[in-house]
């Protein structure tokens, strides 16, 4: 994602593009997969941990990122939807039990679930667990 696309995406979600917000969004886009808070802190050594934490909270509030519980912790990824009111980017994720990475499975949509009357869904976490292709290759070698 180039700088113009990042600025445009932040604007679509109602987030003012400060230097740190752009830096965090750029790192998440470059990773190409969900990142943990620790991974972001390691990648962005010059940014204070509290700034990263507050920025992720703001990004979540504006539906710019969504959080994935993968069994090892919480990971964050940029949403591909363009709406600050709701997350229209629901897809499955795959957690590798060997390397601990979580991957987006964007071509696998989250199945619709009908809930009893009175329940309201705020978020959905559809997670598959197993071994990723890279780890499977090293396992065979």
Attribute tags:
alpha+beta; three-stranded mixed sheet; globular; three-stranded antiparallel sheet; 141 residues; Arc Repressor Mutant, subunit A; single chain; 5 helices
Report on the architecture of this protein.
By secondary structure, this protein is α+β, with helices and mostly antiparallel strands. It has one domain (3-140): Arc Repressor Mutant, subunit A (Orthogonal Bundle), CATH 1.10.10.10. It is 36% helix and 21% strand. The chain has helices at 3-12, 19-31, 37-43, 49-61, 133-140, and strands at residues 35-36, 65-69, 74-78, 91-96, 102-109, 127-130. The strands form two sheets. The protein has a three-stranded antiparallel β-sheet. A hairpin with a 5-residue loop joins strand 4 (91-96) and strand 5. The protein is globular, with a radius of gyration of 16 Å.
């Amino acid at each position: 994602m180039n700088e113009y696309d990042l600025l445009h995406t932040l604007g679509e979600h109602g987030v003012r593009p400060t230097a740190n917000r752009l830096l965090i969004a750029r790192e998440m886009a470059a990773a190409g997969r969900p990142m943990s808070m620790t991974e972001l802190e390691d990648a962005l050594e010059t940014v204070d941990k509290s700034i990263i934490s507050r920025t992720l909270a703001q990004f979540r509030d504006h539906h710019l990122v969504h959080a994935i519980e993968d069994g090892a912790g919480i990971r964050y990824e940029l949403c591909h939807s363009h709406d600050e009111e709701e997350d229209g980017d629901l897809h499955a994720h795959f957690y590798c039990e060997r390397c601990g990475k979580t991957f987006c499975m964007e071509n696998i949509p989250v199945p619709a679930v009908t809930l009893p009357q009175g329940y309201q869904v705020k978020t959905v976490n559809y997670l598959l667990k197993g071994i990723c292709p890279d780890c499977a290759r090293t396992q065979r070698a």
